[in-house]
Amino acid sequence: MEIYGDSKSGNCLKIRWTADHLGIPYRWIELDIMKGESRTPEFLALNPAGQVPVVILDERRPLAQSNAVILHLAEGSDLIPTDPYDRAKMLEWLFWEQYSHEPYVAVARFQVRYQGKLVSELEPRIVERGKAALQRLEDGLATTPFLVGGRPTLADISLVAYTRMAEDGGFRLADYPRVQAWIARVEQAFKIA
Questions:
Q1: Which residues, at least 6 apart from 120, have a Cβ–Cβ distance to it below 8 Å?
Q2: What does the alpha-carbon distance between residue 53 and residue 177 come to, in Å, rounded to a whole number?
Q3: N or C: where does the chain have the smaller number of CB atoms within 10 Å of the terminal CB?
Q4: d(CA 152, CA 79)
Q5: Which stretch of DSSP H or E encloses residue 27?
Q6: 187 Rama class: left (phi>0) / alpha (psi -120 to 50) / beta
Q7: DSSP annotation of 169
Q8: End-to-end alpha carbon distance in the chain
Q9: Is 139 strand, coil or helix?
Q10: What's the topology of domain 84-189?
């Protein structure tokens, strides 16, 4: 398997962490999105959307979108609950991550860390919704050490990717103590440095 990714991207890292946890061998192909390396004709032939990550599976079949990839890689593993309700809750968190978390927490991080904006220059809506996303995580961890079923799942891998880097976008993780403790548990469970 080949993984085309940018090591600065949480969406790419969640695939690396899933593959590492499951012992799936791969070849990492580093792309620098800031240099337009996901916009070359060769890359666009793999993913016409021009986005990383992209995984090349057996028989040269490409698969994009980080949460789709980790679901494919983890099928039949302990990272996907067997209980139908818990599996649906895991999927709920995965969909929420891409719709209500990543567009704010990751975008703030990208604009501050890689585009050089000051936190005070961020669009207020991004900051407000990023804080709301972190609070949703804080609330979701009120009675459980992990997001679903009391044990690590793909929901944790998916959400820890950008949450652990939230301070790069100006968010204070100290305001979310349960989230901080959860990040440490997830990093330990998946040996994330």
A1: none
A2: 30
A3: C
A4: 7
A5: strand 27-30
A6: alpha
A7: G
A8: 23
A9: helix
A10: Glutathione S-transferase Yfyf (Class Pi); Chain A, domain 2 (1.20.1050)
Question: DSSP 3-state assignment of 68?
Answer: helix
| CB atoms inside a 10 Å sphere around CB 177 | 11
Query: Which pLDDT tens digits describe the chain residue by residue (193 residues)?
Result: 999 999 999 999 999 999 999 999 999 999 999 899 999 999 999 999 999 999 999 888 999 999 999 999 999 999 999 999 999 999 999 999 999 999 999 999 999 999 999 999 999 999 999 999 999 999 999 999 999 999 999 999 999 999 999 999 999 999 999 999 999 999 999 999 8
What CATH architecture does domain 2-74 belong to? 3-Layer(aba) Sandwich (3.40)
CA–CA distances in Å: residue 11 to residues 6, 86, 109, 150: 9, 23, 13, 24
